[in-house]
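To fix ideas, we quote verbatim one protein's residues and fold tokens.
>
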Amino acid sequence: YLGLSVQTLPWDKLDGTRERSKPLPSYFATWSEFRRLTRILRRRRRVFQGVPNLVTKVNVLLFMLESVGLWRPKLRTTVISLMDLIADRRVRWLVPMLTRVVNRVLGGDFRMQALPNPFEVRADGIDLVIFEEFAAGTEALHLTDLADRADLMRDPAWRRRFRKQWGSLFLPRVYHRDLRHSTIEACPDARVVGRSFVDVAAERGQHPADLFLDLCAEHGPALRWHTVVANDRREPLQRITADPDVLIGFSDAGAHLRNMAFYNFPLRLLRLVREAEQRGAPYMSVERAVHRVTGEIAGWFGLDVGVVAEGRQADLVVVNPEGLDADCDVLHESEMPGFPGLMRLVNRNARAVDAVVVRGRVASRGDTPARDLGQVAYGQVLRPAP
């Protein structure tokens, strides 16, 4: 195995009926318990990955210190995620400063993961993890019956709690909760489609949060909307992706099938670099960008892949640079195999990707997969070096 991954953020909740809305089990572990496990990782030269507690933001320092190599072997440690947050612009320069101290001065091997594109999400009504950031949102998401949830959202006492927590300056947040940064993409009420909640609220003489709750109560998941949480500025995003202490990654799309699709983040990095070069303001070479999403990641995790060389595993992606354009940002919906009726967000970049080769076998050409893909084994389990 590569190592151990833990979750210390209380906002990610369990589904189901027995323990619904409770944080994941590792949230309840003490750091001394984690340390007993990291001793094994350190001894076996494996990787420690985690999600820091964004409520206090303090335990990211514990992840950093766990990586320190003074008087002991360093521990490869990575956490998610470095972003240029709209809610807190300080994060994108404070965390890299601390990381440099850990790695350059204290002998650590600490990496932040980062996406090379805007962190934008879509939601059906209130079904989105950002509403787990405060108690009123969690209370609504706890209800699985849409009629019960609608009744709660119409309750005056609950709405007052929601408004108070939504606008609180003291409750920690990752989502900016500024509905100006929103677009309604679908709704049975066609009059609101293509507009922000703030614009519609102003027209109706309402507070934006009240308008949002009214639409959620009336239309439920039929209300689909979009917002950008982070990485909305080009220059800070370029600095993040060029940081040597950053691992390009953290798609998270596989955990949020209806909310985001960042599966093509390697192409997004190549596009970011290519557009900077075309503007006459290059900040990273194309060769460096390719290495960042192939050999660099594989090497850090101890995997013997990610490079093109004689005798190595022939995993290749043939990229057409002319296809690295706005098409990389376009999302498509596709039914999830094995789950009839569940539509997930996907990326399709046939213009950018001419072919995909896995262990020497052509798995796809453009957007046409090989006939036996998914029926016979193309790849294999990747194991770290002993």
Q: What stands out?
A: The two ends are 10 Å apart (CA to CA).
